[in-house]
Amino acid sequence: MCLIITGKSAKVRSTLLNTHGLLSDIFTSNPDGIGFMYGTAKGLKVTKTLPKNLGDATAFIQRLPNDDREIAIHFRWTTHGKTDMVNCHPYDVIPGYVAMMHNGILHTGNDADKAKSDTWHFINDYLTSPVTEHPALVHNEKFLDMVADFIGDNRFVFMDGEGRMSHVNHDQGIEHDGLWFSNTYALSLIHISEP
Hints:
It is built from 6 helices and 10 strands, in the order E-H-H-E-E-H-E-E-E-H-H-E-E-E-E-H. The model has no long low-confidence stretch (mean pLDDT about 95). A 6-stranded antiparallel β-sheet has the order 3-2-4-1-10-9. With about 200 residues, the chain is α+β, with helices and mostly antiparallel strands. About 30% of the residues lie in helices and about 25% in strands.
């Protein structure tokens, strides 16, 4: 299953690069794309890659800003749709302003277009229209609670162009050393990797 990590960029970067075996274990379990998002003075920055090996994944992580801005990074394991850049997270909800990452398998599926992921379909079927009309919805607790009720045991992370981040089903993930991990298996990887 995919993995999302959120927190301060320098902390995410150092944890992934300096915790022995962690990036290797995460990449081995989630080899189908890596993407990150963070706010800049010019709006939301989204960067994605389809690494061919651990060296490519490491080089991509080294591109994370080494500062205190909030960042979200996603490691993909394909469950629906093709393994390509279109299905690599994060996804635009409002291009250049709001993006989203997903961890889990949505009951809404991808029957209308099997080449696209369940996340792609969910954004296009349920999120694009209301969020485009009201971008602040991605930070509205009642809206996020409604989304959480609908998606069950899935996790979403939204970010806007100012770098403000919102989690859906935050409590289904786990916090460790200032970072949030979208599922608990990541914590066992960290404990295994720590001396």
